[in-house]
């Protein structure tokens, strides 16, 4: 840390309790009170350096020999500690100026009008010269800006705050190696680097990590930090750097966001206890307002944690809406665990905040639809076929497909909640367009879990729920499970069996086609016609067994219905199920 020594005389002051006495030999003729401290001094050394003290002494001095006057300077910047240094400066006593006291000295000198008109090398010029040296060093600039909090109004008047922020902003936007390595406690000298006259001579310096300045500026108060972020943005800082600093700052002061405290900072005394809930709310709203608008510069999981914290702190609706829109714009980068936001409303109906996820999903769809027109189902099916394993890996999925998978997983997680109403479940699932799901296994699993947790649903409600999935897009494993699922409506089971048989016949037809082409080319094919016919017979036998089981269930249901009253309404129910009197064992598909 840079320092400047002024004065040449030895110590000439003694402190007795709350009193400072000059031991120059002559009796003091003026007493200056600053706060609770009293300084017994002599008027001539003071008025020869300060225009304000000269005026006050002339106005208050009685002119009678032996009688001292009393001046009160309670409003002097920096208080008694700073005035002690100023008094020593006026007497020519040795003092040391550093980055920790230069701001208060500069403000006090301005207040006391210690200009060059009252002696060459007066305190205003001395402190200004030293501030130029302070602004050339990163660590000293940070320390000086932190001390501005103590004398903020006066520091603003002499433009120390703006100059200090500008100095820090320029350095934050520059390569730290240009200032000599390291520039702060967070920066590290690269291996093999040498410094010659303050310049890094390494021929191949490593890429400088942009987060080297995050920790140092995180100890600033919110108003000063906010001004610094605006300054670095105006200096050309990239959005990634600004976003990284904002995330670091938020993690330090918001308990809801994880952060490991570093106790080795240059000014550990500035680390205070966790701010109050009201202060946290203000800080969070300010941080959200400063976030860059560029997409994906902020981690999606961090935005979701910010949103949860905003809900717990009851942040403003505009703040929460801002976060929801940001999350929606990059929802394809979210994970299921981050999306499980606990319900923090006053009327807690469901375990998780379904409405919040609905709004986020709606915003994602609006952004996605604005970016690209939805492709036709045929194109999607072709792309899904092309998205096979290539060179040991699969091609990347589209954002809407990734979100569809995420939503299906989310629905499966919230489905066991008995308080989750059917319309809300349907509304969330229906937002995803049909073309976005290459397979409907995920939505089928969510529907099955919901049916299991809500056994009181009517047949009509079950059918409405099952319309969310397309039986043609179920995998073989899902079809096998659905065909034996007693929770599904009868009509859905029949559809599953029908499409499974249709798919089987299509596959077998393809096998025959391959077999014929292979025979024409006299190739060696392991699967023969006899093998195909055998497989066909086995699959048809399996299908017949499933249909027989289904017919037994239908017969059992009709027997139960026959025991009911022979009313017209009862017969209408049978007709709706597709039963016929003349053929009791048939199933109308």
From TrEMBL:
Residue ranges constituting the BTB domain according to the UniProt record: 28-99
TM stretches of this protein: none
Keyword field: Coiled coil, Ubl conjugation pathway
Cited Pfam families: BTB, NPH3
InterPro entries documented for this protein: BTB/POZ_dom (IPR000210), NPH3/RPT2-like (IPR043454), NPH3_dom (IPR027356), SKP1/BTB/POZ_sf (IPR011333)
Coiled-coil annotated spans: 533-567
Pathway recorded for this protein: Protein modification; protein ubiquitination
Family (UniProt): Belongs to the NPH3 family.
Name the UniProt record assigns to this protein: BTB/POZ domain-containing protein At5g03250-like
Source species taxonomy: Eukaryota, Viridiplantae, Streptophyta, Embryophyta, Tracheophyta
